[in-house]
Amino acid sequence: MNSYSLKQLGLQTIVEEQYKQESLKIGRVATSANERYKILSPEGEFQATILGKIRFLAESARDLPCVGDWVLYQKMDGDSQAVIHQVLDRSSLLSRKAPGDKKEEQIMAANVDFVFLVNALNNDFNIRRMERYLYLVYESGALPIFVLTKKDLCDDVEDKIRAIQDIAPGTPVIAVDSLSGEGYEELYSFIKEGKTVSLIGSSGVGKSTVINRLFGKEMQKTKDIRASDHKGKHTTTHRELFVLPKGGVIIDTPGMREIQLWGTEESVHQAFDDIEALAAQCRFIDCKHETEPHCAVKDAIHKGKLDVERLESFRKLEREVRHLELKEKYGTHRASKMQWEEFRKKL
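That's the Small ribosomal subunit biogenesis GTPase RsgA sequence above. Prediction below.
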């Protein structure tokens, strides 16, 4: 039975400050499914359930353990089974709206330092989708890093890197070739003992291949991309935490077929801080960047400094998150009515 030191598992200061119960052991959740959890700890690996009190007091999915969580558990005598007594406070939480029409949050990973936003440098390259991923990371409290895979299939790598730098100034962008290993040394600079990295991306962009390359062996199964549309088939079916032999922790997540947002308007503005900076220069504080005179945003579009599609993407995400906030507070029917009234006032 494998055991890991707390440092190998990515121990953080916020965790050390909370761990004061000598009667309970501390571990980290590696997998989670139907309220069954695998815990990694200095004492070994354990299959665990949660204390009934945790389930009874849980008001939402956020109150239950998820992959990446630090938990206090009690080992059952003479067994590899355990019971989770407490979920410790998180330093970050990566989530999205659950797929479908239900008003539910889907928790993806906790206590993550860096999120690798994995995108393929082939026909599936999509800037608008990357903006949505960036929003999820800003909302989580982790730091984003763009990882561009399948470099060997792309003839205009630098152009695509510049396109991402335009939507996320200052955010690292690393292009990798998993066949030759090019770019992986840059990735390793973020993966070290005491740090946790999560990978998110659409189905088939190469997340599993990246993980296998980082480990130096097959940890996740992969499938070839389709020649017809250059898209791959995602093979990761569940979230899982891995401890790298050279130090560092990686959390893999299933590929996303749809990216539904969960969070606040503040994170939208953070993901589009270039538009926010321009808006601050508009003559009117409540400028909608449509017909108003002396609009810095429209002027930037006219001069070719801002892509009109980026402005439309900003407006779309802002509407989505606004609708989600209203729906959470008032319900679906009233939220739609209120948002329509807000739209009419702008006409």
